[in-house]
Specification:
alpha+beta; four-stranded antiparallel beta sheet; 18 strands
């Protein structure tokens, strides 16, 4: 989801491209720790030499040779796809094969894909270093929105900003602090796990004006109307995404509100098919799989409450299968289906369970409904059980000659097609977690 505003403007053009091709000065903490000072921050002064704090232990599970090979094969296929769509001039990859623009969320995905490819020995040290150095050099020089934050969207080939009318722009589209949080997570992984990249990663982070990205210690985004110049400033507080992104900011010394990390803070309880879920109390919360999967894979669940909520989000999807016989693994994805081509498939949103929407508000549709490839691989990595095994088996037809598509349609189990950078990156992360048995930032 990144933020609900992210694709309101840009996903239509992503979808149009998909359709045409027939087919998203704080205090210095110990690295990996969380500074929970309740205040806005100015530019951070991060330290990056120590190892991260120990994460909550992950329960070891037996991985069969067949399952291990499935994950490794999926990761290699995904890496071949990412490598093929990467622009040598910037090191950035396109959102998918025939669409040149890329969101900041997916720029973080490019780093994740390269890191995973190296860890799994798909590429050697020299190739990896050249790729990461190119990406970091690009992030050190690309224009910022308002000279304060990375723009929502860039052209992968040139590194130029793109506006909300899908045009190259000197002004830009605005920013999503959730997306920036994903980039901060992966810059932190590089800085801690591979200290040779720490100086450049730190330089990139110091480009950001944290006082604008955080408001009262909470995530704040900006959306710019390309016609009127009007700015929409909003809080990004979706459950899971807020905890994920705020923890990333805190790792770099930003002063966040500690309540933002607490999955029980400012929430309401809803019942989805007999499963109790927490939702952000303002009521406009899309409950998705993706942030909980990423938290599990990258940092580990830092509290029992967060781990419990992740398990409940998965349990609600299993409950739908038990109730209806429809295999369910939901999140947001780019799809070849009109009219929106990008859809949120939420476990819960605005009083409705298992609702599908286009980008923006009140764009409800009955279809498409699909079983997500990245959700299948991710859930079976972080919270494996008999149901996640079933989901993983269900999405196997999503493998195409060019890479893993977004999934299979629920009713026909036919593949959706449309391999994308985001799907590839999440599958690769899942393979690294599955084969290592621990979060990426764990000691």
């Amino acid at each position: 989801m990144r933020s609900r505003k992210l694709f309101t403007a840009c996903s239509l053009v992503i979808g149009a491209a998909a359709g045409s091709s027939a087919c998203s000065n704080g205090q210095q903490p110990v690295p990996g720790s969380i500074n929970t000072t309740s205040a806005q921050s100015s530019s951070p002064q991060p330290a990056v030499t120590a190892q991260p704090v120990a994460q909550q232990p992950t329960t070891a599970t037996v991985v069969t040779p067949q399952e291990r090979q499935l994950y490794l094969d999926a990761a290699r296929t995904s890496w071949n796809f990412v490598n093929r769509i990467t622009e040598p001039s910037t090191g950035l990859a396109r959102a998918h094969e025939k669409y040149s623009y890329v969101t900041l969320w997916d720029i973080a995905g490019v780093i994740a894909a390269n890191y995973t490819a190296h860890e799994l020995a798909f590429i050697n040290d020299a190739t990896y270093d050249s790729h990461i150095q190119r990406i970091l050099a690009t992030l050190s020089t690309v224009d910022l929105f308002d000279k304060a934050a990375f723009n929502r969207i860039y052209d992968a080939k040139t590194g130029r900003m793109v506006d909300n009318a899908s045009k190259i722009s000197n002004v830009g589209a605005g920013w999503s602090s959730v997306d920036i949080g994903r980039l901060l997570m992966w810059l932190r992984i590089l800085a801690v796990k591979q200290p040779k990249y720490a100086p450049l990663a730190t330089q990139i982070v110091r480009r950001l004006d944290m006082s604008k990205l955080l408001n009262g210690g909470y995530l704040q985004g900006v959306d710019l109307d390309p016609k009127t110049g009007k700015r929409d400033i909003f809080t990004e507080n979706e459950i899971g995404y807020q905890q994920y992104a705020l923890s990333s900011f805190a790792m770099w010394g930003a002063r966040i509100n500690p309540a933002g990390l607490d999955v029980r803070s400012n929430v309401a309880v809803v019942n989805v098919l007999g499963v109790r879920l927490l939702v952000t109390s303002p009521g406009n919360d899309r409950v998705m799989s993706e942030p909980f999967i990423m938290l599990g894979m990258e940092t580990g669940f830092r509290s029992p409450d967060l781990a419990r909520e992740a398990a409940q989000v998965l349990a609600a999807q299993a409950a739908r299968y038990q109730r209806t016989g429809t295999v369910t693994a939901v999140t947001e994805d780019a799809l070849p289906d009109p009219p929106y081509y990008f859809y949120y498939y939420s476990v819960y949103h605005r009083g409705k369970s298992f609702v599908v929407e286009g980008p923006g508000d009140n764009m409800y549709v009955d279809k498409p409904r699909w079983v997500s490839s990245k959700a299948a691989f991710g859930w079976n990595a972080v919270l494996p059980n008999a149901y996640t095994q079933l989901v993983l088996k269900t999405v196997r037809p999503a493998l195409t000659p060019n890479g893993w598509g977004s999934g299979v349609y629920e009713d026909t189990l036919q593949p959706t097609g449309v391999p994308s950078l985001n799907t590839a990156a999440l599958i690769m992360e899942s393979a690294l977690y599955k084969t290592r048995g621990r979060p990426i930032l764990a000691n």
